[in-house]
TrEMBL record:
InterPro entries: Kinase-like_dom_sf (IPR011009). It holds the Pfam family Kdo. SUPFAM superfamilies: Protein kinase-like (PK-like) (SSF56112). This is Lipopolysaccharide kinase (Kdo/WaaP) family protein. Gene3D superfamilies: Transferase(Phosphotransferase) domain 1. It comes from the Bacteria.
Length: 247
């Protein structure tokens, strides 16, 4: 078994990063400054690398069956790395990939880990929720989310997990994190269905704020056009029946 490491060009020959990579997939707890997520499928934490704070995501496989099924597939760390590169090329703000690590034995892949830049800022609901809908910042922020998701789709990609916590507001505006599920589809109908799902999840995010949900949907309709918007709202997400402007 060998350790496969890929490092972004701007982080090559970085002694502190090299020391961290040498530890992985194990991680010295003293490096962790904050655990952001600790679930059966992944551990996400802030880590100190020299004077820079980065984010590390260690992917877990909760069952033997899933572990076996993923041995021959591209790892989620690799997929996230690829997605970060694609969004960077498109000029869409997102986490920047620093490095990824996985153990390999021939074609088999184990213990993937991704290291990326910290996207630090309030999530979509927290940021927009601090303004009344009549405020220009609310509308400009909502439009920016919609336009940047549309730019992702126009590039032939789907995000795949547009939960409100995966859209953060930074100095660059709406920025995207958690890119494990980003995909490019060769089969147009499949891409179209997954694209519609992205939009439905965005609407679903506002389920506890019906007035904001309705206004967000109106802005979506203005951007997407009536035809695509009707396809989005023809089906709900997770059987949630939002109050939406269909006409």
């Amino acid at each position: 078994m060998r350790k496969h490491i890929v490092v972004a060009p701007t982080w090559e020959d970085h002694p502190e990063l090299e020391a961290l990579l040498a530890e992985l997939p194990d991680l010295d707890q003293d490096r962790i400054t904050q655990i952001l997520k600790d679930k059966p499928i992944s551990l996400v934490a802030r880590v100190q690398v020299g004077a820079t704070e980065l984010v590390i995501k260690r992917y877990r496989t909760p069952s033997l069956g899933k572990r076996l099924s993923r041995l021959l597939r591209l790892s989620k760390a690799y997929r996230s790395w690829w997605a970060c590169q694609r969004l960077a090329a498109l000029g869409i703000p997102a986490m920047q990939a620093v490095a990824f690590v996985e153990q390999r034995f021939g074609p088999l892949r184990f213990d993937p880990v991704l290291i990326g830049t910290l996207v630090d800022g309030p999530d979509m609901i927290e940021y927009l929720g601090q303004y009344p809908m009549e405020n220009a910042r609310w509308e400009s922020g909502a439009k920016q989310i919609i336009e940047r998701v549309q730019a992702i789709h126009r590039a032939g990609l789907v995000h795949g997990d547009l939960n409100w916590t995966n859209i953060r507001f930074t100095r660059q505006g709406a920025s995207f994190v958690d890119l494990d599920d980003m995909r490019a589809f060769r089969f147009p109908p499949r891409f179209h269905n997954r694209m519609l799902r992205d939009w439905r999840v965005l609407i679903y995010n506002w389920r506890d704020r019906p007035a904001m949900q309705k206004r967000f949907a109106e802005l979506m309709r203005e951007t997407l056009g009536q035809g695509l918007y009707q396809q989005v709202t023809a089906k709900s997400f997770r059987d949630h029946k939002p109050v939406l402007p269909f006409s």
